[in-house]
Amino acid sequence: MQDNIKPATTSNIPKHVAIIMDGNGRWAQKKGSPRIAGHKAGVETVRSVIQACAEKGIEVLTLFAFSSENWRRPEKEVSLLMGLFLAALQREVKKLHKNDVRLKIVGDVTAFDKKIQEQIIKSEELTKNNKRLVLNIAANYGGQWDITQAVKALAKKVETGSLKSDEITSDLISQHLSMNDLPEPDLFIRTGGEQRISNFLIWQLAYSELYFTDTLWPDFDRDAFDLALQSFAGRQRRFGHTGEQIEKMKNA
Ligand code: IPE
Ligand code: IPE
Ligand code: MG
After folding, report:
1. What spacing in Å lies between the alpha carbon of 6 and ligand 2's midpoint?
2. 56 CA → ligand 1 middle, Å
3. Which of 31, 149, 159, 211 has fewest C-beta within 10 Å?
4. Count of CB atoms within 10 A of residue 138's CB?
């Protein structure tokens, strides 16, 4: 047996977990209920995953709530989702604050109606100094939008002469993306069986560990989350190095 390979332990907790919460509609349809019933049940799962993250010492949780492409859904579903989003923000923010959670909405929030935008500002302001967990809700978010807005900001700097095009590096691009103040996701989870990114974080997932499960989001309970964390803990992240190099660094 090679003694330089350490067994993975479950103490290997990710700092940042990013989740595509998928499968609400199918969950409801399976029960013969309208899709919105699945979205409502999904809010319960959000609550339990936030709590699990806080307990486990995960520092950042990013949840994909509404993609820039989800506007293509039937008007009625979009408007019910907006209502649910606003109600959840209004209802949950005090509890989040009490639990020392910092809430951030990432995405192009200018597309939301005024009431939602005001609630977003209020919620972010109230929780801005909290330290236990950063909770990012990606709403009207798209990875392509994120990169586009970063490129625009850089192009403006070049236009005004404060930046030379030769000075653009991948680090500088990262610094202009949403969540530039946070570590990139260590673990990406998608529930609901699909194995795709659906325009979620594209740049930031460059070296994330990917985990896909058939479990539908409303059924994604603490045990299901633990399975994802166990899978993560068992992986060796190499970032281009060899496995041997990584073991040496760990033992140094
Ligand atoms: C994810 O569940 C929630 C949102 C996209 C808002 P879906 O609504 O996509 O559920 P399925 O994929 O249709 O089952
Ligand atoms: C991705 O799920 C977006 C969210 C979970 C918010 P979708 O259900 O919209 O993804 P596609 O359309 O199946 O790729
Ligand atoms: Mg879906």
Report:
1. 38
2. 27
3. 159
4. 27
What average pLDDT score do residues 245-250 get? 94
**180 among known catalytic residues:** no
Catalytic-role residue among 3, 4, 12, 22: 22
Residue closest via CA to ligand 2's atom 10 equals: 198
CATH code for the domain of 201? 3.40.1180.10
Q: Confidence class of residue 11 from pLDDT cuts 50, 70 and 90? A: low
Mapping DSSP to helix (H, G, I), strand (E, B) and coil, where does residue 198 land? coil
What's the structural domain count of the chain? 1
Token pair 């003694």: residue: 3
Count of alpha carbons within 13 angstroms of residue 121, beta-carbon side: 7
Query: Is 87 domain-assigned?
Result: yes
Smallest CA separation from ligand 2 atom 12, residue: 198
Q: Where are the beta strands (DSSP E) in 87-132?
A: 101-106
Q: DSSP assignment, residue 180? A: T
